[in-house]
Amino acid sequence: MASMPTVRESEIERRVGQRNLQRGQEYFESGAVFNTRRQNHVLKASCTGSSSTPYRVQITFGNNGIMDAGCTCPVGADGRCKHVAATLICWGKHPDEFVAVEELDAGLDRCSRGELINLVGQLLRQRPDLEGMMESMLPSPGVPASVPNPKTYRHQVAALLHRAGDTPAHTRLIEQLLAIKEIGDAFARQRELGSAAVVYQAITEELLDQADALDERYVGLSDVLNECVEALGRCLAGKIEESDVRTSILRTLMDVYRFDLVFRGTARRDVPTLIINHATSKERRSVAEWIQQLLPSVDDRSTRRILGGLLLDLEAGRLDHQTFCGICRQTGRTLDLVRRLVQRGQIDEAAEEAEEADNYDLLKVADMLIRLRRTGLAERLVRERWEAGNDQALDAWIEKFQTDRQSQLTALELSEKVFRLQPSFDTYCQLRNLARELGRWDDVQPGLLAFLEEAGRMQLLVRIHLDENEIERALELAAGNGVASSGYGLELEVARAAERSRPQEALTIYRNHVQRLITRRGRENYTDACRYLRKVRTLMNRTGVARNWADYMSDLRHRHRTLRALLEELAAAKL
Predict the structure, then answer these.
(1) Which of 396, 358, 402 is CA-nearest to residue 379?
(2) Banded pLDDT at 131 (limits 50, 70, 90)
(3) Domain map of the chain by residue range?
(4) pLDDT tens-digit profile of 275-301?
(5) How far apart are the first and last CA of the chain?
């Protein structure tokens, strides 16, 4: 057996707190700790407490002290209770009382068949209540031991629930159910996931069947149910090959989801996550079909919406537009429907669908429309609903909208004044964004453009027309107002923008620019001229005058035949 460190009282206090340390000392002094064992780096013990049966304590040591601890008492899951404290105190004061034992599996492996039978007999004499469970777990004649019978485990769970009766304290019942679950865990550790799933499903289905009878105690037993759901998810993730087993697991998971949703009014998040993450595409479609079969029997609006959301998640990426919209209408998922229509640019149809939404979704749609700069439409939708009846949320939205709009109108006026004092492309864009948000841009823009033209701000006008894809107006201004004389950059931007829609005008600008570069002399300018000559050639091909390219280049070389460096650059560029 490996050596384990002793634990000082200060270390115990840091783990369990002062009060639990004091109570642990009292438990230790009263002899509550017994059946003490040590197994490699693990301490095990039993400790009497408020329950009729002793609690089981287990403490694992690592290189840096206590690595993990736990107790079966109601608050001992993280190992910070008084029973853990009592066990640690006992270990510190009487380590020799902890009998060194080997791991149970290893010891059982060494037992002969007769020794195992004798061991089981002794166990049953001490715990006769285990006889029924053990009998139900024995394999049936002619049935392979690796294929457990689900009825066996359901009967055992049902018997435990029946014996528990109306007893308020059900800690013992939970322990017994978790003991059955441990059988499934043992199958899972052996990678017999189908067998493990049978056990988990038996516990789950019996708890669901008797949930009404269990009444308030179901709240405590739901922890057991949750552990089984998580375990079934691990079985799915473990790639069980048998399709019928996987289908059965999915059915059980959906039974849990439906029970909590329909009968308890809560929507579980774990079940949809497990199905979406671990089910195949075909299996997800099957689950979607089950939901479609369930929907006609569901009257509650909220439940239908939740099921509709799961249905859309299961079918994500597979639904065509019409089917997606149909599911949204069938299940009341108006917000999802409006988002889809907005994404497709069907704003007016989205607004019509929004009229059927509840107030909560309607306000979300209105906020979406405002972000799309459809402020007037958003206001109309909310005002029509607001006028039809009183609602605090609608009142608050209208009030905030009016306040924001007045502030934005004031900001728009100030922005326009700033722009007229110091016109620039950035201030124009800011003003445009603000006016669009208010739905005022069509009223504001003509005055701004007229102001710039009267002020002779032709470069700024050209840049604005380029930004707004008004290529013809940009070309007109660039050609007639000496834009090139103040710098070639803007003129070339106009040419680039015009290459597709007005290639002939772009060709003229590039040819003029080539001539300017050659006139300025210098090898660097000649290199740039070659770059633009390639654009000239491309545009000539596009406009159908490629036959003129040879004449154009012959004339260019002849006119500049004395510029040796230019001719060298043309040759290097293969022009």
Answers:
(1) 402
(2) low
(3) 9-104, 415-572
(4) 999 999 999 999 999 999 999 988 888
(5) 88
